[in-house]
Amino acid sequence: MRTFVANLGPWNPVGSAATAIYCLFICLPVAALLFKAVQQGNLLESALSETALLALRLSLVTSAISMVLVILVGTPFARLLARNRSLPMRIIDQLVELPIILPPVVAGVAMLLAFGRQGVLGPFLSALGISLPFTAGAVVFAQVFVAAPFYIRSAKLGFMAVPKEYEDISQILGVSPLRTFFRLVVPLAAPSLLTGIALAWARALSEFGATIMFAGNLTGKTQTMPLAIMSAMESSLDTAVALSVMLLIGALAILTALTILTRNNWRPAP
Amino acid sequence: MMNRPAGGQALTGARGWAKYRVGDFSLDVEWEAEAGEVLTLFGPSGAGKTTILRAIAGLVRPQEGRVEIGGRTVFDSKTGLWEPPHKRRIGLLTQNYHLFPNLSVAENIAYGLSGLDSTSRRERVTELVESFQLAGLEERRPHEISGGQQQRAALARALAPGPSLMLLDEPFNSLDVELRRALRSELRASIISAGIPAIMVTHDIEEAISMGDSVQVINDGRVEAAGRPLEILGQPGQGRVARLIGVENLLDLAVASLHPQDGTMVCSAGEAGLRLEVPLSDVRRDEEVTVGIRASDIILAHTEPVGSSARNRIAGVVSGVQLRPPGYEVTLQCPGVQLKCHITGTSLNEMGVKQGDELWAVFKASSCFLVRDQG
User: How many CA atoms lie within 13 A of B254 on its CB side?
Assistant: First the structure.
């Protein structure tokens, strides 16, 4: 009995083996990428090529705009989802997850059918002189579509974890509901909000399928980093590697920031 | 006074009434608390006590009612007046205190002071930290201080903005028994010195008696009884109140004879049943009455005590002994009735009480009281 329990201790063989296999599985490709980048020597030169810089700038600008939109709309929406558990809201809650399950390519086709020139809103947008497909606006649309659920889901869970009593007490102390939200609820939910932002941003930066369907792959206009990597693979592996390393470093930076920012320095209420 | 709101206007009490229905639950109550006094709402869980506080604070909106705080009407269903919670100038102390976990003790106290400039805010916080003995703990987080300190910090936070009414929702629930007793008088003193009315919810009779200047017994969304705590809870006149506060012995007896010269009467449990001497009351012979006796008012003895002034001496057989902290509850089967008696563990051991023993229950006539079942 004793040995049996001991076998399931912190270093049990099955768990250790699974951990080793998984870590190798993730680390080997990453190491291979870094090894290739170091080996080729002209990493900086490739990273500073015009195509690479245009793609980087487009990715940063579009994903930043996407995140602002996601936060502006997603925050009040997530808040309502957290507080209102009526049947209609619970159904909407389920629908929020749809873009996570939907293949991004399908999302791209669907967006073309909605916002494209022949789409549902096409005539209306044309009348306003707006043409969305194959513009940077379409890139933002595609990113918001696929990334927003990650933020909304995380923010909703964060808001649900803030006990209603804190808000009641804040209001009784003379602080209006709106100011209570910014002074109390947002700081208390901050770890979840930041996690959501990081996950959504990472998803927006890596967006590929919906973008290529809805926004196309026009250098300097709609060609984001992932699309640029795809295009570079056809001509120069060196450029593809350089761009990949840049995205990898970005991902690691987000992961580190996330770990630091979401460290709780207070204990949640009992 | 340190806790009076600026301006020094005369402070008055809080009163109101509310009818509130939600689902199967309905509430129909009124209340009144004088400035510098504590009104306790006493009753079992689910009776609607906390809902009354929530209605006063504006966290729920009753279908009908009126809430007046410090001479100001904040809710009136007739005129449609409704002030949201943040405009009602109320202090609330909850059972878990709900100190904001991401803020320090000082930041918690300062939370409701956003109307002040930073200098006066700092002065006010310092003043409260001093008077609530929190000096040295200003920078601690709530989870880093003790339960009693948390209660004081939460009270300081609630009183900081100078509320016109203090609401206390089971404020001692998360403390152990000894700390409760110690903090009770401390909390009461703070509220009285703030010169504002307070309404406290509790299901603990000791708390209701020691904290309240007046008490309302709440059951099933209604006020069962109201008055001075000792009058209501010490000698419970109403059957339901007696049951609510847990008078252990409620005996259904008939009046056998009246003795006005002694101020007593004899009640019996049938022909062969026991006979009790109880204080004289306005009843007729043969009338059926319910007599209440506290289990802690009964003395147990091995032999019939002689030369005792206690009027009631009843023999019975022990039918059960149960642990009932801090002591034991002995159930005595007497002719026609069962008596529950509370004794300490030491008494139990010294007397060697066990099931089947024949014992005498002894108690004064004045320990018995008549319980009137109303409604």
Answer: 10
Rounded CA-CA distance A147/A66 in Å is 8
Identity of the residue numbered B309: S
Question: Is A165 within 8 Å of chain B by CB?
Answer: yes
Angle between helix A50-83 and A87-96 (nearest 10): 160
The reply to whether residue A174 touches residue B101, judged by beta carbons under 8 angstroms, is no
Q: B161 and A174: CB-CB below 8 Å?
A: yes
Q: Is the ipTM of this complex over 0.90?
A: no
The burial class, CB within 10 Å (0-12 / 13-18 / 19+), for A200 is buried
What tens digit of pLDDT does each residue of A131-146 get? 888 888 999 999 999 9
Note whether B236 and B249 are within 8 A (CB): no
Reply yes or no on whether the pLDDT at A269 is more than 80: no
Q: Residue A255: name the closest of A217, A205, A208, A209 by CA.
A: A205
User: Helices (DSSP H) in chain A: which residue ranges?
Assistant: 2-7, 13-40, 43-47, 50-83, 87-96, 98-101, 104-115, 122-127, 136-160, 164-172, 177-180, 186-205, 209-214, 225-235, 237-261
Q: Which residues contact B62 (CB under 8 A, 6 or more apart)?
A: B18, B19, B20, B27, B55, B75, B77
Whole-angstrom CA distances from A191 to A186, A269, B40, B111 are 9, 15, 40, 21
Chain A partners of B142 at a C-beta cutoff of 8 Å? 266
Q: How many CB atoms lie within 10 A of CB B242?
A: 22
Q: β-strands B38-42, B337-343: how paired?
A: unpaired
Q: How far apart are CA A196 and CA A198, in angstroms?
A: 5
Q: Is B362 helix (H, G, I), strand (E, B) or coil?
A: strand
What is the distance in angstroms between the Cα of A260 and the nearest Cα belonging to chain B? 16
User: How many C-beta atoms surround the C-beta of residue B317 within 10 A?
Assistant: 13
> What does the pLDDT look like over A27-76, one tens digit per residue?
999 999 888 888 877 777 777 888 888 888 899 999 999 999 999 999 99
- For residue A204, give every residue at least 6 positions away whose Cβ sits within 8 Å of its Cβ, in sequence order, or none: A62, A63, A66, A67, A143, A144, A146, A147
Does the beta-carbon distance from B101 to A177 stay under 8 Å? no
A88-93: Cβ within 8 A, 24+ apart: A93/A156
Contact residues on chain A for B96, CB-CB shorter than 8 A: 165, 269-270
CB contact at 8 A, B239 and B372: yes
Quote the DSSP letter at residue B248. S
Contact criterion met (CB below 8 Å) for B215 and B200: no
Do B98 and A269 count as a contact with CB atoms less than 8 A apart?
Answer: yes
